[in-house]
Amino acid sequence: MSSHSLIRSAIVDLGSNSVRLVVFEGRERNPVIIFNEKATLRLGSGLDTTKRLNPKGVALAEGVFKRFYAVATTMGADPFMVLATAAVRDATDGQEFINKLQSWMPNVPIHILTGEQEADYAAAGVLCSISNADGVVADIGGGSMELVQLCGQQRFNAQTLPLGVIRLMDRSEKKISKAKSIVTKDLKTVEWIEEVKKKNLYLVGGAFRAMAQLYMEYTSYPLSIVHYYTLPYDEAKRMVEWTIEKSKGGINDIPIFIHKRLNDLPYAATVLGQLLARMRPEKIIFCAEGVREGWYMRNVVSEAACNQDPQEAAALDISERLGRVKEFPLALMQWTSDLFKNETVEMKRLRWNACLISDSGCHDHPAYRKEQSYLRILCMAGMAFDHPTRAFLALTTAMRYEAGVDEGFLSSAKKILTHKQFEQAIVLGMAFRVAYTLSGNLPSLLLRTRLKVGKKKLSLYFSQHLDAVISDAVTRRLSRLGQLMGLETQLLSDEEELKNKIS
């Protein structure tokens, strides 16, 4: 058991629709969730009319919070905190409810967030995994929606609006046409939104995620992971229109996890539709990280860890947990440095992360290694990788473990990646295959050879006394790599190279 596995922290996110307990393990840059449980209380239902919390939700709350308290304290979570949002913030009996909550969860700090604080935590949650986010975060809950501008890892212009799905349902008397007018009017109060037109829109909150999940099912999207699901502006408009239209007649055959959100979907879609009309963002990006992860980043993770690149931190964690020789990824990075001409900064970053995870299947059974390694990376928990990065790294790892280009299980990568990205992943994975075969995972042995890409030839140079390690398997795999790159291959000792230069 690793030492960090004993370090746990917990947050209870008390919203207008649901309450959720999340327990994190460790203090790493990317949150590792070991417990995640939600209860639907709908405390904000009727709030706009009565100004009080939903009595049915209050009645259910005691059992839920006592359970959450028992789980988190038994796990030894520290820090352990409750964050209450719009319903408790706005209800006239909000403090009365907090007093009950303190009796159910003794010695647990409870904070009622202002709208601006809630927006700030949501923004920090988005930056947790999307560190280069540039645009607007829209975090929709049951009672409110928070908007906040992001640029250069800084947060600006936080604003809260009474546009949570439950409150909007109540304010509009369950009429979508009226809801649209309300949203349009409320968004006009956000004067700074004109400054962020054409930028990205990052969507946080359960109602937005449910809409994405349903649309992914409808379009047969190849990956069932909402986080980082990205749509261009025109496709986002189609999703909004489709969601509202389908909701009119009832949506059949929906996934079980959508059922509790079904009534909220047309209101979430209405809010998104008006945001699209005001911003005309280049693309929308769904984010599964929000207030809870923002709290984690602010209260648990060290400043040094916060400043790490989230993708590199995730890949390093995989390397440390699953790899065998910690020095090998750096040697592999150096050995493949000549593989791609005019390599972009982004491609270099991908190659480094691929090097880090390249040995992640070493403990799998050989008969299942290629597919298991592929699925591990493609479907891994954690939020650091966007979908193309997941697919690229998964494909590269599968090829390193001798997958064939036409294997059926690689179909998801083919759908997600561009043709160029797919080819680059294949080439890099095949290069890894040569490197591991040649070196036996020994950095010193690998770096006594060199891979050189010329105009017509792919050359592997080695010291003359390394003849014994140049096996038939190395030759075959180098030849296969050359074929993929459209190059002839040759094996040359350093001495032979020198003679060729002299002659």
Automatic annotation (TrEMBL):
The EC number(s) this enzyme carries: 3.6.1.-
InterPro entries: ATPase_NBD (IPR043129), GppA/Ppx_hydrolase (IPR050273), Ppx_C (IPR048951), Ppx_GppA_N (IPR003695)
Sequence ranges assigned to domain Exopolyphosphatase C-terminal in this UniProt record: 330-490
UniProt entry keywords in alphabetical sequence: Hydrolase
UniProt-recorded Gene Ontology molecular function terms: hydrolase activity
Keyword Hydrolase appears in the UniProt entry: yes
Keyword Zinc listed: no
Segments forming domain Ppx/GppA phosphatase N-terminal: 22-299
PANTHER family the UniProt entry points to: EXOPOLYPHOSPHATASE (PTHR30005), RETROGRADE REGULATION PROTEIN 2 (PTHR30005:SF0)
Protein name: Ppx/GppA family phosphatase
Biological source species: Commensalibacter nepenthis
